Amino acid sequence: MHNLIIVESPTKAKTIQKFVGRNYQVESSYGHVRDLPKGKLGVDVAHDFEPTYVIPRKAQKHVSRLRKLAKEAAHVILATDEDREGEAIAWHLVHALQLSQKNVARIAFHEITKSAITAALRAPRDINLNLVYAQQARRILDRLVGYKLSPFLWKKITRGLSAGRVQSVALRLIAEREAEIQQFRSQEYWTIAALLKPEGKDQFTATLTACDETPIPKPGILQEVEAQRILGDLTACKWEVAAVTTKATKRNPLPPFITSTLQQEAARRLNFSAKKTMYLAQTLYENGYITYMRTDSVHLAKEAIQAARQWIGTHLGKKYLPATPRV
């Protein structure tokens, strides 16, 4: 009998299947297999906020197929992502597929490479219930806020508005920041700069930072009359370059991307939305090109470090290659 590995997405399943051989069959759950019901609250507020889970209609076909495959397999290995959503999917699969605990193993990895998959299969673990409970709490809060607050918005403002656990708080932060902006009172100030071009040299800009050896406080000169007086004095002065200082600066490379910095740079450089960035990153991850993108860790896989060092040495030269990796 073969072993059945279950992951969330078909792309991830195809990539992993290349690494594990014929003794394993890799299949996809196509995302979550259980959720709170659509037509009602699904949370028993009076009894410790107990959730009621159902198998959504769109997931029933996949669940039926996985149940059949699980019965035919020697072992079922749950290889969903190692975050609270992935851990919850693994836990829901155990219940939806009616799996026996003695035939179930949970594995996790941060990158889809042959070495990472092999290492994970050698070190199975139990489902982390703390992560499962964290996901449940997040899902229940989403449902409570959405179901309870959204109708209030329909009644007080207009139908179609929705309230959420995150967006409602974010909206308050935006509103408070806008109130601060409205309360801001502008202040007039003046700065003085000179565009200078020494004979036979390139031109440069010099900014006045002190007057009569007294530093000019920020934000600048507060009175136009005072600024004009200083400007008049400067016009009559003889200008000279007192000193030229040249120094080398060293700039360390930025750390590897985490989720937030990846989204920020994609928006700044490519004008990508957060949704588009994460979709593309998910695709790259599932095809084995990057490590897991929903993370606050800057850890790099050994394979990635070795590949980067090889590329730098080949294309940029050894002078740009540190003797040892920085991480």
- Summing up helix and strand content along with how strands pair, one would put the structural category as alpha/beta
Number of domains: 3
Please tally the helical runs, counting DSSP H or I stretches of 4 or more residues.
10
The level-1 CATH class of the largest domain: Alpha Beta
Percent range for helical residues?
40-55%
Classify the beta-strand content into a percent band. Answer: 5-15%
What would CATH call the architecture of the largest domain? 3-Layer(aba) Sandwich
Indicate the low-confidence ranges by residue numbers: none
Which whole number gives the mean pLDDT?
Answer: 91
Overall shape:
flat
CATH topology of the largest domain: Rossmann fold
Describe the structure using short key phrases.
alpha/beta; flat; two-stranded antiparallel ribbon; 4-stranded parallel sheet; 10 helices; Topoisomerase I, domain 4; 3 domains; 44% helix; Rossmann fold
What does this structure look like?
- The longest helix is centred in the middle third of the chain and has 28 residues.
- This protein folds into 3 domains: 131 residues, Rossmann fold (3-Layer(aba) Sandwich), CATH 3.40.50.140; 43 residues, no CATH class; 62 residues, Topoisomerase I, domain 4 (Orthogonal Bundle).
- The protein contains 10 helices and 10 strands.
- By secondary structure, the chain is an alpha/beta fold.
- The two termini are 42 Å apart.
- It is 44% helix and 10% strand.
- Strands 2-1-5-6 form a 4-stranded parallel β-sheet. Strands 3-4 form a two-stranded antiparallel sheet.
- Helix 3 crosses helix 5.
